[in-house]
Amino acid sequence: MNLANPNGSRLLVLAGGLVGAAGVALSAAAAHRGGAFTGPAASFLLMHAPVFLAIGLIGTNRWLRIASLVLLPGLLLFAGDLLARDFWGSRLFPMSAPIGGTLLIAGWLAIAISAVARPRP
């Protein structure tokens, strides 16, 4: 995604909507089907969906855009690994959840940096 491209904002809003919808669907699946990891994966999806919406709607700050580019793959790896454990009985690949979690932490730190970073001319 081009950081200066306004269509990138639309992609982030799309990502927020899809992530939110997946979180709701997986919350229902966790309530009806169970599974040790489906509920936490749904929670992570639901708590991050508003981030993509906010950055897509108001995020003109370069650090916020970078954060979204780090958060989305981190979220997909982390939640994807949890879901693979419940639905397939195996992990996505070794270290996928820790890599995803590390990317999530880095993304949130980029959001924090966006509050104090000087805007580029």
Automatic annotation (TrEMBL):
<keyword id="KW-0472">Membrane</keyword>
<keyword id="KW-1133">Transmembrane helix</keyword>
<dbReference type="Pfam" id="PF04241">
    <property type="entry name" value="DUF423"/>
</dbReference>
<feature type="transmembrane region" description="Helical">
    <location>
        <begin position="37"/>
        <end position="59"/>
    </location>
</feature>
<keyword id="KW-0812">Transmembrane</keyword>
<dbReference type="InterPro" id="IPR006696">
    <property type="entry name" value="DUF423"/>
</dbReference>
<feature type="transmembrane region" description="Helical">
    <location>
        <begin position="66"/>
        <end position="84"/>
    </location>
</feature>
<feature type="transmembrane region" description="Helical">
    <location>
        <begin position="96"/>
        <end position="117"/>
    </location>
</feature>
<protein>
    <submittedName>
        <fullName>DUF423 domain-containing protein</fullName>
    </submittedName>
</protein>
